[in-house]
Structures are given as structure tokens and as C-alpha cells.
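C-alpha cells incoming
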């Protein structure tokens, strides 16, 4: 992420408000807890004990309890955590209990695939508008979202109250685009473009390089088989 502190301040807790900074690693684990809880809920599981939830996420029960203790009490020790309620509570902590509007920049192959991905909606994020520099795409509707030209950037971001964007455009001109988006009030960037960007100090950036992930897997496989 772009900020250098390595921690964020918590949001409203289930029973109390945490009085300390929460590490980004804890935030990432909260997201993993919520994902597993949603899977358990779909499987019809009503309650889960801490040791089982920890094992499903890949952490120790002690780590799980430490992560949750910053936000108050989540469940009954003897009966376990209420799967549905705990998932909703973590959603409130993460700020995803209400749908947030997101804008997508770049309606190429990757951009259109992201538009079709239902996981965003399931986790509380709605891609409300798309942007592209290709005049043949501007004005068209992709997966129910209208594509706008960059000349409408500030107006559309304000109209949809967008504070988070997904970058899936070409690398050329990316930094200038990011500067303009940040100046329009956006504070969070999910970057799928294999190019580094810089943002103001009060912005957050998550870089997702799919090719780099494949390279990592390739190395691990080669190391495992000794080639």
C-alpha cells in the first residue's frame, strides 16, 4: 500500500472501538476470515470454533484471537462463533457492509473480464462506471456499465461518489491519469497495470501483477521438482 506507516485505524467494532492502530497484516487476515465464513455459511454451517476457523485460514488459534480481540467479543467460547453474524460484523469493520461505487479505467480484455466478475458485488463493491481512451468504446455499454471518455472523468467520479478505482488500462500515460484521478478526490487504487505509480501521501495503492504471480509459481514448481 502507498502509505508507509504499516497500520490503519480501525472502524466501528462489534462491542467496542479499538483504541490502537491495526496492522495491515491483520486487515488482510480479517478479509480471509470473512471469505472462509462466507463459504461456511453457504455450506449451511451455523457455528465454528476458533481452532477450526484458524485452520481453514491457515493461522494459529492464538493469532486468530489476537486479531479479533482488537474489535471486541465475537462469540461464545463453548459454542463457537456465529458464522453469519461474524461475517457481517467483519464486513462492518472493513467498511463493506454498504455497497461502494468503484470506477474501472480500461475496457480491454482484462477490463471486460473484471466487469463480469461477480465477486466484487458479493463483497460490497459495484463498478458503477468505466473509462477508456478508445473512441469506439466511449458511449457504449459493457456489462451494464456505460463507458465514458476521460473528458468526463471529474464529472462522472463526482456523480457516482467514487473514492476507489480499478486500473486496467495501458501503461502509457498511466501516471498522468493517476494524478488526475487523485486530484478528483479518489483515495484508493487497485492497479492491474504492470507499471509502478506514485500517489499523494493520503492515498492507498494495491498492485496486482498477474504475470509476476505466475513467475513466482513457476519458480516454486521448478524448485520443487529440482530442474
Amino acid at each position: 500500500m502507498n502509505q508507509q506507516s504499516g497500520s490503519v485505524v480501525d472502524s466501528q467494532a462489534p462491542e467496542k472501538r479499538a483504541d490502537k492502530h491495526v496492522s495491515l497484516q491483520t486487515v488482510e487476515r480479517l478479509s480471509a476470515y470473512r471469505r472462509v465464513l462466507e463459504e461456511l455459511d453457504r455450506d449451511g454451517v451455523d457455528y465454528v470454533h476458533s481452532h477450526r476457523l484458524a485452520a481453514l485460514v491457515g493461522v494459529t488459534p492464538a493469532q486468530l484471537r489476537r486479531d479479533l480481540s482488537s474489535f471486541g467479543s465475537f462469540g461464545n467460547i463453548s459454542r463457537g462463533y456465529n458464522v453469519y453474524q461474524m461475517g457481517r460484523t467483519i464486513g462492518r469493520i472493513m467498511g463493506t457492509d454498504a455497497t461502494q461505487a468503484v470506477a474501472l479505467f480500461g475496457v480491454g480484455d482484462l477490463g471486460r473480464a473484471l466487469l463480469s466478475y461477480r465477486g466484487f458485488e458479493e463483497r460490497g463493491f459495484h463498478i458503477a462506471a468505466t473509462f477508456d481512451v478508445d473512441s469506439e468504446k466511449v458511449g457504449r455499454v459493457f456489462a451494464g456499465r456505460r463507458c465514458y471518455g476521460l473528458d468526463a472523468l471529474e464529472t462522472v467520479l463526482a456523480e457516482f461518489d467514487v473514492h476507489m478505482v480499478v486500473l486496467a488500462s495501458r501503461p502509457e500515460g498511466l501516471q498522468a491519469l493517476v494524478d488526475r484521478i487523485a486530484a478528483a478526490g479518489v483515495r484508493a487504487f487497485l492497479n492491474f497495470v504492470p507499471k509502478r505509480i506514485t500517489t499523494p501521501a493520503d492515498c492507498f495503492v494495491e498492485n496486482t501483477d498477474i504475470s509476476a504471480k505466475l513467475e513466482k509459481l513457476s519458480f516454486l514448481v521448478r524448485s520443487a521438482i529440482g530442474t
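note: The chain has two domains: 7-94, 100-212.
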